[in-house]
Write a structure and sequence with these properties.
This protein is α/β, with parallel strands linked by helices. It has helices at about 20-30, 45, 65-75, 85-90, 125-135, 150-170, 190-205, 225-235, 250-260, 270-275, 280-295, 300-305, and strands at about 35-40, 80-85, 100, 140-145, 170-180, 205-210, 240, 265-270. It contains twelve helices and eight strands.
Amino acid sequence: MPTITHDDVKVPVDVLPEAREDYIQNYLKATRGTGRLMLFACDQKIEHLNKDFYGEGIDISDAEPEHLFKIGSQGICGVLAGQRGLIARYAADYPEINYLVKMNSKTNLVKTAQEDPYSPQLHDLEAVLAMKANGVNIVGLGYTIYLGSEYEATMMAEAGELIAQAHANGLLVVLWIYPRGKAVTAEKDPDLIAGAAGVALCLGADFVKVNPPKPAGEDTRTPAEALKIASMAAGRTGLVCAGGSTVDAETFLTQLWEQIHVGGACGNATGRNIHQRSLDEAVRLTKAISAITLADYSVADALAVFNGEKEFAL
């Protein structure tokens, strides 16, 4: 099982001296002392509206927002990521969860064919620090950039300033970076995914969430092999992959193992694959995912954790 100590945390020099210890503790909390991130993504209520929470193939428990927090509390994850208001409504009842506040969001109603995507920042850092002052266990912030959108300069400027402010206050930042817009013909092109990883590094992010690359044409690499280049491009910014639509547990765990051990990913960012299941099944899947992400379990052993045949705890 990979482990890091207090002294192993590489603190960026934009973290103020008085915030250095907070940054280290937040990093250790978010990565469960491993240096790897298990991010439970719960930001889709704005991004995808209600279709990710109610419908065919989705457990009825997912229609109730508190389902997310029950999973975060009973399962094993590094951070629960969601919008400020969502966290503000439930965090008092779930103080043990590590929270990451998603600072910008947009719905999927306006399609790229109509207008290039822009996800505006919804509030300033002071609103988040006020929650933290009230005892909410906030360890970091998240922000989405649509690289290739005609609004990318605005989003990069907002993200850059946000990262500087967050680090000055000892908070981590995870950037969601997705190539998207009329200028982008292949959103999962391996070179574009690697480029997105490099942008995150240059903006100063601690982690970057990208879609797994999709090699095409004469590129015979597997997605995990192509991901290795993106992981290298990210440098000291840890790269994690979005989980995507729900698939069976064995397929998902196999992809995750390959992303980490072949592609060099520094964890995972999973939402629908977890929360669209019943509470019991979702909790077991967080443990199986964490077994691979945080403890280097094999796919077979992680699947045994998911099936209840093997215990996993941190």
